[in-house]
Prior knowledge:
The protein is an all-beta fold.
Amino acid sequence: QVQLQESGGGSVQAGGSLRLSCTASGYADRYCMGWFRQAPGKEREGVARISRRGGIDYANSVKGRFTISEDNDRYTLYLQMNDVKPEDTAMYYCEADLQPLCTVRVDRQAYNVRGQGTQVTVSS
């Protein structure tokens, strides 16, 4: 059974950078992995996703600012956040889809496992 643990969140000023990490433990085929966020009173938003088949997708709100990547062993997932904005403030969660036919599209994000989340707060 796979478990996910996020780290790297914190407080940052607008225009700054943060790098989130997600470490996977336990064995399972994770065909798609990604990040989503949720701010108080708002719906969950898919942020970025990466597929074992090589595809990557981003939400329009973060394109050009955030980059998703993973280690070659695929046990650590990253989200590099540059030029952050106050509207990026949210709890960020790492997720994994164990289905071989998972979609890389963030607007159709579905997952089997997620982490506990790490808070990102951006001040203006």
